[in-house]
């Protein structure tokens, strides 16, 4: 579990040793009925329970009570040409934290920001509609004066 890239050694300098994991852990949104001290991750197939526990304890300083992993088979789907496409298999790690630690899934898209973005989008759409009305008003009557009507 060390890095693939090792820094170059220059004679006279102390040996450089970097021990960083080559693995990734993808946080999965918790179900509504899960306890607050339960966290789920999607991990690579090669990662073991001990690797997960060491990863969280050593790098992120998170105390871990229990780690359980389970294998999941990727879905098999048909595309529009009736070819079968299989998604890759993955492993799910179910981590139990101590009772006093409560995990809160981060709010990546806060509602206030979403409301503001929606208002901005609506305003821009209204401006575009007004501009199109002005341009479309007499597009086929270029030779008729404006006082004649629509």
UniProtKB/TrEMBL annotation:
Alphabetical list of Pfam families matching this protein: Ribosomal_L23
Compartment list: Mitochondrion
Subunit structure, interactors included: Component of the mitochondrial ribosome large subunit (39S) which comprises a 16S rRNA and about 50 distinct proteins.
One GO term of the biological process aspect: mitochondrial translation
GO molecular function: structural constituent of ribosome
InterPro entries: Nucleotide-bd_a/b_plait_sf (IPR012677), Ribosomal_uL23-like (IPR013025), Ribosomal_uL23/eL15/eS24_sf (IPR012678)
Source taxon at top rank: Eukaryota
Family under the similarity heading: Belongs to the universal ribosomal protein uL23 family.
Descriptive protein name: Large ribosomal subunit protein uL23m
Keywords: Mitochondrion, Ribonucleoprotein, Ribosomal protein
Gene Ontology terms: cellular component: mitochondrial large ribosomal subunit
